[in-house]
Each structure stands twice: as structure tokens, then as C-alpha cells.
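[Automated response] Your request has been received and processed.

Submitted sequence:
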Amino acid sequence: MYHYPCAAGAGSFQDFSHIFLLCPEHIDQAPERSKEDANCAVCDSPGDLLDQFFCITCGQHYHGMCLDIAVTPLKRAGWQCPECKVCQNCKQSGEDSKMLVCDTCDKGYHTFCLQRIMKSVPTNG
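Generated structure:
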């Protein structure tokens, strides 16, 4: 048994439309059970299922390789795709040019929502 964020962090395959979860040991069953829903939204193939992120907002799957993001348990838990990403402080999207994305957890934060407000996005990462 898993909590949903723990399941994502552990590399389980989640499918909200068919309401099931597959542990990493049985993840190879995903293409058969989910059909095209197991495909990455970028490359449209299931590819390496252990390299997939699952967006908790829209339910789409994305390969870390297709997004150029290293897949880690911390990033997987509560992950949102680029189209769904919201600021963790104000819970709003938009203002993408002022959104900082953490290299460790891939969560987004507006510069103006931080405790010490930043006037601009740093250019050195």
C-alpha cells in the first residue's frame, strides 16, 4: 500500500483515468493496462517507464529524458508538468518569466512570493 505521493516517489505507475497504480516491480504491465495513456506526452511512446514523471494535475506521463530533467524520488512526489506548474506559495500559475524552479525538487516559486522578494530571476542559476 502506498500514499499517492509516496507511490510517485517510489517510481510507481499511476493512472487516474483507469484508477490503478502499479508498483515498480509490475510497471511493465502499464502499456497493456493503460494503452496510450502510458505514453509520454512529448514522444508519444511508453519508452522507459521507470524514467517517467506523472503530473498530479493533468494526469499525463512524461519521460525525464524528454524534459531534460533527472528523475529522482523527491522530484516525482507531487510533480507537475510545465503546463500545470503553479507557485508553491500562492498556488497560482502564470508569470512564467518570474517563476523559479528548484533544481532539487522541480517545484516552482514566483520571485515575488518568496519571503525575501527577489526583483528578478538570477542569471547564474
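Summary generated for your ticket: The radius of gyration is 15 Å. The helical segments are 4-9, 30-34, 64-67, 73-76.
If you did not submit this request, please reply to this message.
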